[in-house]
């Protein structure tokens, strides 16, 4: 059994459609709060990726869960919550952006057999200047996206949670992230649950 801190980052502004959040999990094994300040710094350093006046709000508190059941086992607090504001062009494409792929060393049992446990984080929306004509990212902007991904990973003990198979099961687990890669093509967002 491992405990995880859940960090829910809220996105808002005229370029954001609907209830938009990014959910990250960090190991709670050392009983310290998740690395909110480092996360905020990673986004702030590359705020030009995000449309003008897009607000990315980092929480000052959140839930701590048991990874085997998903049950709430505590709460965390941090004085480092706050907001990063996008400083890029005001224009953005609705529902598309970048996708960070997270890799772990974990093997889990899924409905189709065993597989490597991986995760995804979407960065949506992005300002329109980041896209090349062929649907990839302009190289300098791609480098900035990869810098954000590296900053998220380096901020603390980032983990991917494999949810339990049902609401009453206790077969969930989590593994630490060992590498990441931003996909060099536009990601279409149908759900921000990932």
Features:
single chain, 194 residues, mainly beta, 2 helices, 11 strands, globular
Secondary-structure topology with pairs:
Blueprint: E1 3-12, E2 20-27, H1 36-44, E3 55-58, E4 61-66, E5 72-77, E6 82-85, E7 96-110, E8 113-123, H2 139-154, E9 158-162, E10 173-182, E11 187-188
Helix pairs in contact: 1-2
How would you describe what is shown here?
- With 194 residues, the chain is mainly beta.
- The protein has one domain.
- Helix content is 13%, strand content 42%.
- The protein has 2 helices and 11 strands, in the order ββαββββββαβββ.
- Strands 1, 2, 3, 4, 5, 6, 7, 8, 9, 10 and 11 form an 11-stranded antiparallel beta sheet that branches.
- α1 runs antiparallel to α2.
- The longest helix is centred in the last third of the chain and has 16 residues.
- The radius of gyration is 17 Å and the shape is globular.
- The two termini are 22 Å apart.
- H-E order: EEHEEEEEEHEEE
User: Low-confidence segments, ≥5 residues, pLDDT <50?
Assistant: none
Mean pLDDT: 93
Biggest β-sheet: count, sense, barrel?
A: 11 strands, antiparallel
Q: Any idea how many domains?
A: 1
Q: Supply the helix-strand structural class.
A: mainly beta
In total, the number of strands is 11
Morphology call? globular
The number of helical segments is: 2
Radius of gyration from the alpha-carbon trace, in angstroms? 17 Å
Distance between the termini: 22 Å
Give helix % range: 10-25%
% residues in beta strands: 35-45%
């Amino acid at each position: 059994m491992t405990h995880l801190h859940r960090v829910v980052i809220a996105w808002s502004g005229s370029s954001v459609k609907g209830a938009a959040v990014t959910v990250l999990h960090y190991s709670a094994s050392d009983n310290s709060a998740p690395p909110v300040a480092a996360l905020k710094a990673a986004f702030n350093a590359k705020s030009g990726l995000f449309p003008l006046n897009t607000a990315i709000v980092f929480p000052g508190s959140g839930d701590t869960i048991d990874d085997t059941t998903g049950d709430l086992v505590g709460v965390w607090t941090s004085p480092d919550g706050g907001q990063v504001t996008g400083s890029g062009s005001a224009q953005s494409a609705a529902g598309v952006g970048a996708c960070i792929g997270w890799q772990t060393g974990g093997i889990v049992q899924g409905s189709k057999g065993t597989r490597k446990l991986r995760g995804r984080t979407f960065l949506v929306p992005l300002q329109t200047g980041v896209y090349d004509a062929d649907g990839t990212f302009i190289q300098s902007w791609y480098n900035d996206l990869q810098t954000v991904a590296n900053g998220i990973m380096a901020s603390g003990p980032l983990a991917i949670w494999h949810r339990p198979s049902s609401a009453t099961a206790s077969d969930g687990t989590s593994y630490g992230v060992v590498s990441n890669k931003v996909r060099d093509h536009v990601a279409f967002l149908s759900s921000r649950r990932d």
